[in-house]
Amino acid sequence: MTLTPEDLTAILLSLKIAVSATLLSLPLGFATAWFMVFRNFRGKVLLEVLVNLPLTLPPVVIGYFLLLLFGRNGWGGALLKSAGIEFIFTWKAAVVASATVGFPLLVRSIRLGMESIDRQLLQASRSLGAPWYDTLATVVLPLSFRGVIAGSSLMFARSLGEFGATIIVAGNIPGVTQTIPLAIYDYASSPTGTAMALSLCAVSVTLSVGILLLHEMLSKKLETGRSS
Q: Which fold does the domain 5-227 belong to in CATH?
């Protein structure tokens, strides 16, 4: 397996984007899941549709919508420009693209963890006079932590493999926005790039397997701790 300095940069950038997208989405994903599980309100079905919409849309469509929103003529782009922030065709745009595409997976996993919580525990906490934020921190979060771990793992893995939305909103600039999938795309377009593409594919598979193994280890550890 041969990796060039540009390949190593792409690998590090992919990890940076995946970590940033996961950390950026985690608070909002947890809040969204909590709101959907423990609150009844008019328009809940619409919220569920909006949250899960990125799962059904092609990533290229998501990337194009983000480009319209944060582009030169979009209100988001104008707001960022007024603050002196460069966004389009930067690694920050890749983070937002990855976060948008992976957000439904994060919310769904956390939501499943929250739905498995015994409601009697919540009622007991409230009957003892605990405020909602205390119940959230001492009951909901610990009991749904396995879902948080699962969602974060899926989100991280999805961000590592993101291609369609990223190439639209962030481009494929070596050393700036080129991630592992984009580098593989470049090598696959070259007649002599087969070996380099396979090397990056091997790295991608290794990272994905490592993430899944870590997820299984954490899940078993949490299950063992809960049982004891």
A: MetI-like fold (1.10.3720)
